[in-house]
């Protein structure tokens, strides 16, 4: 029988164990015998790089010139004493988290308090107790390396997330393309998109369906973060496969649903509204899969809602999506929006809900002038609920221009 | 989100309290483990104490429904009001989850 062997995964703790012995440790003491004693103790324990300073001034010079991982500092020295050295090192932003172990023969509580106030990390008693010194050196090096490693990891993750956010924005319609649709179809398109601090599950798109019709969709993949974002990329790619079916929103969504039922695990799905507007006839064809109900703003000032009730995509292969119709005349507008608007919590902990959102839309419509409806609505929303939201925020208004 | 399981023989009622959102994933899965361990024949999820459910919360109910089908217990949802009822109707999950 063939056998195979695998090495154990290299864990973070194993890695830190190796790293502590490669640490660069600076021993600061005006007494040569003490420097030798501490140095021998450290090298005997396996620490390979130990530097020495015989005064506070020399210690600061060394710490500012080369990367030091830990300092063992005597408190009583001629010239700059240990307290002053601590304070000066801490003033350097690069050395703010450098572990400094202060050694002192004076163990009175007020002395210890003074040591910590000056910026020391820990205290070791003098005369030196070698096992205690080694234990504290190791503890603070491991802690320091772990924090450094986590900080680095966090920075890398933040950079990766920023890159992914940029990629997500790139798959959304760009202003130049939107402007060309505005010109072709004699419409005004207002958009607002704000991802959460992590990654987004909202996605919207717009396309020319025919010389006289314009298509648009808004979808929201369930959940947040990386999995939701990956699913938006997946959906964006899948949609291209069904380009020919986009003229009929219900049929298009049924095709998407069939693919997503296979592709998405249980518990993940996408709500969606898809619509096609024929600007020659004013007929709006649309279908919905559980997306927040878009608002139609009538010329006379009234509001009505599209019926997007339906099982979200990716849940049931048996789901049907009916294409419905509505009339949108010049001067009227369709507003699509993500669920963050209706799920916002008011001061009394109740949700804004659809009715509350419609009140805000009415107020925004009355207040909006040159700023536009969406900008006015989002500004009012942010003012009321704060600028950061628990979910992605998308709002798109499609206005038919009255000539 | 908090939950409490009351049972009479093989019939259980799980009473939920609070919001059911993305961050409740761990608690919800623990509830599902408790339900599986109880080997009930029917479970009613009472949502009368829930004021808010987001898309991730709805997704967790779909996982519960899958568990129910795989483990052979009947799932019914009851007591949804306000936003929770609106969400179940908008997404038509009220039918899939057998809303009473």
Automatic annotation (TrEMBL), chain A:
GO terms for biological process: phosphorelay signal transduction system. Transmembrane segments: none annotated. It holds the Pfam family Response_reg. Keywords: Hydrolase, Phosphoprotein. Residues 24-141 form the Response regulatory domain. One of its GO terms (molecular function) is phosphatase activity. InterPro entries: Bact_Sigma-Reg, CheY-like_superfamily, PPM-type-like_dom_sf, PPM-type_phosphatase-like_dom, Sig_transdc_resp-reg_receiver. SMART domains: PP2C_SIG, REC. The modification 4-aspartylphosphate is found at residue 74. PANTHER family: STAGE II SPORULATION PROTEIN E, STAGE II SPORULATION PROTEIN E-RELATED. This is Transcriptional regulator.
